[in-house]
């Protein structure tokens, strides 16, 4: 570049300022989005599963390790204890761990191994997995400020996610791949509790009706290629595949709670004209510590049992 000197011995350069461009903002935003979609999975595990290509349908994540408020509220733990060696099975379903379950049908073909009462340390695999499940459940509910009635739906979604993310028990594989031999596809996964708009079939509409309904995303419906949604207005579950998501937005539950009297909503059952494939509700009988042999301490409370006074209720279901 050549610049001439002016009469006052100054060199004037006319430069055109470039337009500032942020190159990392979109990548960071996408990393936080997948962090929320995968049940607030820590960023180290998120980077590892994308770099090793353990799953499909997710971009390469290189975001620095951070935590959010929902992670602290739902996953804050004590300092770790030394690890102990445990037996590892050699094939799927070779050894099954269980906690607080009733009779198993059909009967197993091997002997049962029972643990002593009040000694969760003897069943460390289940206790540790339960802790992961409950901490993830708390985080995804806190992130979207969901009422505690939804903890059953949150646990269901958490199990779906945990089966598709890495675990220390498996090297470079997810539980889904270890069982089925194929990598899980996560392209359909959305942030639990986000706003979802389900399209209403044309045969249920008049010319001026809204063609979509605002609902809340509760995960993927098992056994179908569709989403499981909740309508807070009608208090009903909707199964639909034609859905658009606003993953950064959540339902204004405070206004909703004030409309129902400031208390947790109570599910009600009623019929509407476009009700399809409705399923009947069945009463859930909870398993208590009194059902266990040798458990005579009436004041005992399992440390991993959810302390919420609200019983999860499955609302009626219809399909779009």
From TrEMBL:
Output the GO biological process annotations, alphabetical, semicolon-separated: DNA integration
What is the top-level taxon of the source organism? Eukaryota
**InterPro entries, per database record:** GAG-pre-integrase_dom, Integrase_cat-core, Retrotran_Ty1/copia-like, RNaseH-like_sf, RNaseH_sf, SH3_retrovirus
Biased-composition ranges for Polar residues?
Answer: 288-298
SUPFAM superfamilies tied to this protein: Ribonuclease H-like (SSF53098)
* Name listed for the protein in its UniProt record: Integrase catalytic domain-containing protein
Q: Name one GO molecular function term.
A: nucleic acid binding
Region of interest: Disordered? 288-320
Pfam entry (one): SH3_retrovirus
Q: Where is the Integrase catalytic domain?
A: 114-183
């Amino acid at each position: 570049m050549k610049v001439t000197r002016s009469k006052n011995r100054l060199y004037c350069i006319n430069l055109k300022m470039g337009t500032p461009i942020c190159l990392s903002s979109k990548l960071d935003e996408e990393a936080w989005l997948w962090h929320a979609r995968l049940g607030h999975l820590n960023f180290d595990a998120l980077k590892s599963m994308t770099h090793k290509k353990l799953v499909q349908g997710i971009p390469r994540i290189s975001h620095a390790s951070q935590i959010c408020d929902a992670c602290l509220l739902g996953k804050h733990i004590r300092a770790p204890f030394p690890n102990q060696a445990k037996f590892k099975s050699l094939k799927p379903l070779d050894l099954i761990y269980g906690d607080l379950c009733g009779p198993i049908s059909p009967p197993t073909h091997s002997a049962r191994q029972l643990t002593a009462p009040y000694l969760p340390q003897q069943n460390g695999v289940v206790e540790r997995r339960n802790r992961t499940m409950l901490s993830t459940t708390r985080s995804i509910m806190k992130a979207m400020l969901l009422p505690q009635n939804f903890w059953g739906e949150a646990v269901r979604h958490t199990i779906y996610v945990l089966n598709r993310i890495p675990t220390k028990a498996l090297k470079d594989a997810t539980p889904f791949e270890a069982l089925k031999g194929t990598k899980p596809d996560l392209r359909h996964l959305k942030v639990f509790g986000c706003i979802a708009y389900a399209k209403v079939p044309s045969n249920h509409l008049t010319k001026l009706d809204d063609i979509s309904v605002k609902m809340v995303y509760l995960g993927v419906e098992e056994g179908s290629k569709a989403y499981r949604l909740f309508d807070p207005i009608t208090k009903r579950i909707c199964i639909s595949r034609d859905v658009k998501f606003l993953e950064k937005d959540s339902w204004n539950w405070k206004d909703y709670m004030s409309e129902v009297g400031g208390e947790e909503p109570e599910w009600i059952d009623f019929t509407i004209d476009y009700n399809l494939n409705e399923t009947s509700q069945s009463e859930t009988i909870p398993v208590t510590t009194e059902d266990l042999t040798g458990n005579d301490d009436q004041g005992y409370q399992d440390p991993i049992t959810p302390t919420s006074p609200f019983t999860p209720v499955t609302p009626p279901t219809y399909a779009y």
